[in-house]
């Protein structure tokens, strides 16, 4: 959960999000090095007198042609690696279906015979003490931790987007089309998200709550709900 005046990302709770945060820090260090070099050269040109050596220098031209290419490679290789990791889905332990409506989410556990429910935002008047306003729902999406989860995302009416920042997940929900994503939670906890596609008047009021729990708790919860 994000804190007030927080500048960075939320705490990563999946391997993909850990890789994304690490790549973000890597790209910032590259940008900092480029800005420092440019500021140093600007200061040097303002303080030093220009000479013919700086006007016609093939070595300098060679360096400032090759150096940007090296920088782009340093950014492209880890970026492509994360991109392929995000698209890879390998034998999930659990498959879920998230359906976006105006303005709530429906969830179906496809591996169970009859386990589905709607998830509405809790109004402020019904909000328990200590819970987050505009983020808490009546039915949370409960999943087993440290298990590969596949989520099939679609919509019933207009465009939506199923997004949970701390899990590194953001998938568009398009009517008549199935998109899929996957993630693994590395720790137990409650992770909050929201619809990230402007979908109408109540777009801001269809939150997503994912509860990661041990396998024993998930089994008891699912058997209780499906009975």
From TrEMBL:
Q: Could you tell me the gene encoding this protein?
A: CO2
* UniProt GO BP: ATP synthesis coupled electron transport
- This protein's superkingdom? Eukaryota
Record's keyword terms, sorted: Copper, Electron transport, Magnesium, Membrane, Metal-binding, Mitochondrion, Mitochondrion inner membrane, Respiratory chain, Translocase, Transmembrane, Transmembrane helix, Transport
Name a Pfam family for this protein: COX2
Could you tell me what this protein does? Component of the cytochrome c oxidase, the last enzyme in the mitochondrial electron transport chain which drives oxidative phosphorylation. The respiratory chain contains 3 multisubunit complexes succinate dehydrogenase (complex II, CII), ubiquinol-cytochrome c oxidoreductase (cytochrome b-c1 complex, complex III, CIII) and cytochrome c oxidase (complex IV, CIV), that cooperate to transfer electrons derived from NADH and succinate to molecular oxygen, creating an electrochemical gradient over the inner membrane that drives transmembrane transport and the ATP synthase.
Molecular function, one GO term = cytochrome-c oxidase activity
Q: Give the location in the cell.
A: Mitochondrion inner membrane
| Named cofactor requirement(s) | Cu cation
What does the entry's cofactor note say about binding and number? Binds a copper A center.
Biological source species: Iodopleura isabellae (whitebrowed purpletuft)
Kindly provide the name given to this protein in its UniProt entry. Answer: Cytochrome c oxidase subunit 2
């Amino acid at each position: 959960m994000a804190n007030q005046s927080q500048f960075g990302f939320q705490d990563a709770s999946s391997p993909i999000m850990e890789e994304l945060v690490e790549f973000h820090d890597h790209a910032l260090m590259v940008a900092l090095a480029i800005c420092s070099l440019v500021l140093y050269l600007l200061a040097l040109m303002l303080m030093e007198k220009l000479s013919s050596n700086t006007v016609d220098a093939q070595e300098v031209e060679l360096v400032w042609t090759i150096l940007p290419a090296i920088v782009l490679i340093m950014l492209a290789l880890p970026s492509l690696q994360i991109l392929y990791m995000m698209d890879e889905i390998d034998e999930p332990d659990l498959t879920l279906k998230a359906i976006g409506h105006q303005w709530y989410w429906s969830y179906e556990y496809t591996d169970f015979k009859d386990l589905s429910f709607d998830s509405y935002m809790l109004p402020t008047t019904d909000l328990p003490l200590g819970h987050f306003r505009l983020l808490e729902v009546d039915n949370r999406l409960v999943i087993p931790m440290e298990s590969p989860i596949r989520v099939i995302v679609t919509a019933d009416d207009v465009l939506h987007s199923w997004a949970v920042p701390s899990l590194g997940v953001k998938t568009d929900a398009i009517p008549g089309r199935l998109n899929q994503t996957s993630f693994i939670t590395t720790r137990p906890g409650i992770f909050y998200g929201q619809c990230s596609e402007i979908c109408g008047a109540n777009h801001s009021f269809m939150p997503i709550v994912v509860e990661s729990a041990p396998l024993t708790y998930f089994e008891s919860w699912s058997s209780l709900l499906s009975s």
